[in-house]
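Q: What would this complex look like in 3D?
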Amino acid sequence: MSVRAGIVVTGTEVLTGRVADANGPWVADRLLELGVELAHITICGDRAADIEAQLRFLAAEGVDLIVTTGGLGPTADDMTVEIVARFCGRELTLDIELEAKIAAILKKLMARFSGVDFDAVRAANRKQAMVPVGADILDPVGTAPGVVVPGAPTVLVLPGPPRELQAMWPAAIANDAVQRAIVGRTIYRQATVRMFGLAESGLAETLREAESISGFTDLEITTCLRRGEVEMVTRYEPHSVAAYEKLMDLVRARHGDMVFSEDGSLIDDLVARLLSGRRIATAESCTAGLLVARLTDQPGASAYVAGAVVAYANEAKADVLGVDSALIDAHGAVSQEVAEAMAAGALRRFGADTAVAITGIAGPGGGTEAKPVGTVWFCVALADGTAVSRAVRLPGERADIRERSTTVAMHLLRRILLGLRD
Amino acid sequence: MSVRAGIVVTGTEVLTGRVADANGPWVADRLLELGVELAHITICGDRAADIEAQLRFLAAEGVDLIVTTGGLGPTADDMTVEIVARFCGRELTLDIELEAKIAAILKKLMARFSGVDFDAVRAANRKQAMVPVGADILDPVGTAPGVVVPGAPTVLVLPGPPRELQAMWPAAIANDAVQRAIVGRTIYRQATVRMFGLAESGLAETLREAESISGFTDLEITTCLRRGEVEMVTRYEPHSVAAYEKLMDLVRARHGDMVFSEDGSLIDDLVARLLSGRRIATAESCTAGLLVARLTDQPGASAYVAGAVVAYANEAKADVLGVDSALIDAHGAVSQEVAEAMAAGALRRFGADTAVAITGIAGPGGGTEAKPVGTVWFCVALADGTAVSRAVRLPGERADIRERSTTVAMHLLRRILLGLRD
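A: Here is my prediction, written as structure tokens for the whole assembly.
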């Protein structure tokens, strides 16, 4: 037995992409945590016919719970409660107690603005106190109350502002009608494995091989190529743990050296941990600061990031990093020799014990036959004299090459700090 | 007459919110530009029954065009083409020519990985060469081809990686069957105006004033706060051009100094043009390379970007940029004095004629009562001795503050290079 849900996101600004929808993914996450299977997210504009069509669609698909977000405001384009009432075959009725509650909230809110006609505002907001007969009311966080309409499916109506929606969630889930709707939910486990240096099709081959594992079909596996890494997420019920462990044995046997995370950690987290107690500097050419920006995305990075030199021009490589111009003349700026000299320069310049240098051709111009666009040299150098260099040829366009370069650098850095050799 | 479309976004990673969907909003934007009305975006996981249900729903809603994204990869959870074929009542057939094309792409790609069994990979990818009978093929950008299945509705099947989808879009829209599906679209003009330094509510007031303009109600105006800039997008049919021009007269009269773009140009484009013939360096603390990375996003930036020093640690400010430690002791690292010294150091260090320095508190730690998190000092210095400093207090969290700081710096730079004074 399992429980399925659907999410209806309303709002023209979200449909047209002017505002990114934060509610769909957030509610999806909460439902998954609860063990409710999410079947569909649908997004539509503030049009009655489209909202109603989505409700009918989800009901026809047999979901047990529909969560709607948005359309609870006071203006004419806010119509979710009215449409849900019609969809559920219930009349709207004015809830006097709720109206008083909203009026009290508004009075406080309006006190901050001068020259507002309070009665006019309250009349506009009376609309928000109209609820379907027999529905449960969730207290407003802003001015809009949430509504639960019991039934099959049960409909949970939540406000659009993410802050209000998220604050209302605990009360929504505690509601009896919602609890009854999701009573048959399954508790899932979810495991994430991340790999680097592996083509997605290589993993596909391993997964085909895994089909012979007993219970394999009970594992819900999704794979995804992201920022140059392959991510494999598996959802399974507790009784399938043995199948999952056999799968992981196979994945480790085939791709062990490429698996860098089995507990959900990102490469950024792993590198941050490895850098604790160290002092790192970067020397960047084609990435032009993206690596140091990525390292300092982490709160607290100032404990181990000293700084960086972006040496975009060749003179800057020589003047600021102390790279011998003769090296650049002899080997070109994109070369092992220059990457090594840049890393050494960063160590010296910042008194660092760890340095990463990146020099490459991000394009669109600047490529040659020997060094086409996408050619990038990396060097990781440590104060003990360790220096490991590597060249890659990255696909894609300028932005891809620059971004992917930071990922390659993060992984190289991880391996060197772990004492692995490439 | 109007043309309606629906978008089906597939992918368990998107449904569950592990990956933010970039394709729905992007395709929505493109369809709106074309004058196609978007009715629904639906998102589902990699489950055949759910994908098919969404296709049926959109067809029942009478859309003329369905665009699907994702599910074209080589693994078993990629099944969009197969399901679309079934939905359209067409057999799948192996396209020999397409198979050869994909094999050639893979051969090149695989050359970068060692120890991969090429034949096995090719077999996995044969799946990608299976297309519905009578469908048109859109050449792969990665390894996955797009597919157009003519009919009512016409179904346009596009790959999930945004880079591939976006690169395939022009060919998709040029396709005859797609053109036939959207032939009744309304041709709109769309104009974008960008402002900086203006609250969205200030613009809202101007728009209320604009209601007296004759024909104003025929303008479809949306405003949006983005990256600290206010963007106003107006869609209108050609006969409303006079109303739009009157609106712009009013906007210029009210907010002239804040309007920086009326032709769609981004601040990045404007700054790139202004930097032509110059030589710029940045000195960054809290932004840690984000500004120089943003400047070098532009192809050809090597003509005017010399480099940058990220001086994250205070010693780096002193050692690498030559900031007098006494200044830091006296005024703190986040101060006008230090911002000015950093800019001067960048000019000197790189032999630049233009420098931007940023020093601030991105949080979460490090804030004080006098200088709370979000306090950022900027200085733009030119070789002629001009130096303009400014402090702002930015809202939001670490990532917001860092990103918003680069926007403030870009605008300050534009104004100084134009000879405007703040």
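A: To summarize the key features: The first strand of chain B starts at residue 4 and ends at 10. The longest helix of chain B spans residues 398-417.
Q: Very helpful, thank you.
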